[in-house]
Amino acid sequence: MANPEVQPTSDESEDRRDTSPVNQFRRAIYGVPVTLTVSVGQRRLSVQEVLDLTPDSVIALDSRIEDPVRLMVDDKLIARGELVETDNGGIAVKITEIAEEADASEG
């Protein structure tokens, strides 16, 4: 898989021509870095269970291997996707769905 580049949409190109204060603000924050977290599942453990973990421990999660992963920014769901392998053997996420605003609150 080639290194994905984010290409501007036609809406973003139009935003560049719009000099309204709202769009000036949007352009100013476009480059602000955010941390994207990919969540494959979760499991609630007691403190004792955490302390009992060893290098060979296996922790079952609340999802199945074929379930979509969740892409989160600041604990807000922004998209869902599937794990894929890159050309060099790394892990990437193929976006399959952009979260609706109501979904973002589920975190």
UniProtKB/TrEMBL annotation:
User: A cellular component term (GO) from this record?
Assistant: bacterial-type flagellum basal body
**Keyword match Cytoplasm:** no
UniProt-annotated stretches for the region Disordered:
1-22
- UniProt keyword terms in alphabetical order: Cell membrane, Cell projection, Chemotaxis, Cilium, Flagellar rotation, Flagellum, Membrane
Cell compartments where the protein resides:
Cell membrane
> Could you tell me the membrane topology recorded for this protein?
Peripheral membrane protein
Q: Where is the composition biased (Polar residues)?
A: 1-10
GO process terms (BP): bacterial-type flagellum-dependent cell motility; chemotaxis
Ranges of residues in domain Flagellar motor switch protein FliN-like C-terminal: 28-99
Question: What's the domain of life for this entry?
Answer: Bacteria
Q: Does the keyword Membrane apply?
A: yes
Q: Show the Pfam families listed in the entry.
A: FliMN_C
GO MF term set: cytoskeletal motor activity
Family in the record: Belongs to the FliN/MopA/SpaO family.
Q: Which PANTHER family match?
A: FLAGELLAR MOTOR SWITCH PROTEIN FLIN, PTHR43484
Protein name (database record): Flagellar motor switch protein FliN
Recorded source organism is: Henriciella algicola
